[in-house]
Please model this.
Amino acid sequence: MPSNAEAVRQALSHAESIAVLTGAGISAESGIPTFRGAGGYWNHLRFEDLASPQGFAANPKLVWTWYEERRRDIAKAKPNAGHLALVELERRTKAFTLITQNVDGLHERAGSQNVLRLHGSIWTIRCEKCGAERTDLSELTELPPVCVNCQGRERPGVVWFGEMLPEQVLSAAGKAARTCDLLLVVGTAAQVYPAAGMIDIALEHHAVVVEINPDATPYSDEVTYTLRGPAGELLPNLL
Ligand code: BV8
Ligand code: ZN
Model:
């Protein structure tokens, strides 16, 4: 009986179209805290206060302080072997779609090409008043930042709880999950929707679904293979 890793290697080599769903866990080995589990943000912070429109309206300076702190940490971080393994897998695969819940931009910095960012980007800043969007990698000194066009208050260009995901991105992700032969689910607790719903879509369409995570998730018993361990170790071993 081949090991799970061997079976997954086989399945990857036969797959014509591969989709990947990543979450905060793939950036853990780059030193970026996750949201749940050991050291996670939500262990000591409330997502309602920091990642919701209500929280931002109530205390924009607090929310921006948290986002700017994360921006500084991410700017110092580097893509890890897990991110790089997905770049190599994309190079080898005819049809490859990387669906990420992460806003850190590490997949793009690693060199991934076809990336669907379900929850936006921490490097995007959007004016609440006129909607103008800009990319700004610099250290923000004035929090909240002010729109140069209309002096309106600016917010992080991310999707908060209770907000709709970008329509085109979500439908492209759904299509990739529906049409892939194999879905890799890497570093996500699979508790946030509609992102986690990509796993249901792939399962319903009889894709091979592989969970790569040191811990179990609500989908562990439904997926085809579970590989228990850190993505930075397991992904390169699958190439
Ligand atoms: C929506 C912002 C339609 C960006 C995030 C009530 C009202 C409104 C909505 C809801 C509601 N009740 C439920 C909902 C739906 C809600 C939801 O799903 N809630 C959950 C909590 C139940 N979803 C939404 O609100 C979404 N919008 O539904 O709109 C709507 C509109 C109005 C009214 C109704 C519906 C919007 C969701 C997006 C929220 N924004 N972030 C940012 O600042 O980052 S979510 C946040 O969680 C991040 O984006 C993060 O990516 C995401 C998911 O977390 P994970 O990535 O899974 O990370 P986590 O830490 O949880 O897990 C890490 C995993 O990695 C663990 O399993 C760990 O074991 C593993 N790991 C650790 N180390 C490693 C590793 N794996 C591999 N290698 C390692 N080394
Ligand atoms: Zn403006």
About this structure: The mean pLDDT is 97. The chain is about 35% helix and 20% strand. The longest helix spans residues 60-76.
